[in-house]
Amino acid sequence: MAATRTRRQGNTAERILDVAERLVQSRGFNGFSYANVAAELDITTASLHDHFPGKAELGEALIVRYATRFAGALEQIDGALTDAPGKLDAYAGLYADVLRGKRMCLCGILAAEYETLPEPMREAVVRFFDDNVAWLTGVLAEGRAAGTLSFEGSAGEAAESILSALEGAMLVARPYGDLARFQSAAARLLSALAT
Fold this sequence. Notes:
By secondary structure, the protein is mainly α. Helices cover 77% and strands 0% of the residues. The protein has helices spanning 2-27, 34-41, 45-51, 55-80, 84-100, 106-112, 119-146, 155-173, 179-191. The longest helix is centred in the last third of the chain and has 28 residues, at 119-146.
C-alpha cells in the first residue's frame, strides 16, 4: 500500500512539473499561479503545496529537472558524434526542438525574469548556463585542436557567445512563430566557426 501511495505521489509531482514547465516556457514564471496548475490537473492547490510547499520550491525543482534532462541530451550528443561541428549542430538542434514546440528554453525565459526570482532559482539558472558554457568550451577546444573549428579568443569566450546568440535567436524568433528564422541565425552562427 505504501509503495502504491508513493508511486501515485511521484506521478502527481511529475504531472505538476510537466504542467508548470509548459506554463513557464510559454508564459514565464510570473505568468502562472498554483491555481492555473491545479485547475489544469483537476487537483486542489493544497495538493500542490503537499508536493511543492511554495512556488519557489516548484521553480527550483523545474530548473533541476530541466538541467538534468539537458545534461542527458548533451551526453547523448557526445556519445553519438565525434566531430565538433556536428556536436554544435546537434546542440543548436536542442534549441530548435524546444522552439518547434512553441516554447522557450526554460532557463532562457527565467533569465528574462531573473530579478524577480527567489535566490535559489537565480543560482540554479546561472548553474544551467555555466554548465552549458563548460560543455561548449570543451567542444570548441576539441574542434580547434582538430582543425575543424576556427574562432578568435578563448574557447570559453566563444562558448559564451554561442549560448547568448542561440538564446537570443530563440527570443527573436518567438513572436514571429518562425522556426526558420531561428534556424537561419543558428546556421550562420555555426558556419562562421567552421574551417
